[in-house]
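Chapter review: from sequence to fold.
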Amino acid sequence: MYSLQDWLHQQTWLEITGVVTGLLCVALAAINNIWNWPIAIVSVGIYIFIFFNAHLYADMGLQVYFMIMNFYGWYYWNQKPVNEEKAPVLIVTQRELIYATIAVIIFTFILGSLLKYTPASYPFLDSFCAACSLVGQVFLARKVLENWLIWIFVDIIYVGIYIFKHLELTAIMYGIYVILALWGYFDWRKDYKKQLG
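The token string follows.
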């Protein structure tokens, strides 16, 4: 019989480190702490290698994008008003929502169409999740409250993908991400209401 000890022995230190830093950076983002960005850079660097080895090429490319956005987010969050402790939380505009939806549709179609000619697993589903994540990361970097709703949605899908790819530890991490994203949403919403006075 397959035991927990057998399963733990199959986990790599690389994936364990990626999970720990991934959880830490999302928890810090949820509480609006700027130190989420350097920790995210470490986690993303690790997951570039993990997803390459799992043939999840859209996810691997997404991690490269995350790396760039993590540096941008770190810079943007440092540009807070002088009299403020942290950069203010924003609400998505209707125009941003329309552009984001169009971007997700176009990106999913183009990337999915390209990846179906590779050994990529789930080319269109992977591309859809990658597209949603692109938008979510931009919103996170710009401190748009609704980024957390995107992450809740996409992380639930990712849990299933990673279970099917036998990346159980990563699937558990994404399940925890759903909880952290809920926490982030309610914490940021509270901050936004405070800003309104």
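Two observations follow directly from the output. The mean pLDDT is 89. Residues 3 and 9 are 10 Å apart (CA to CA).
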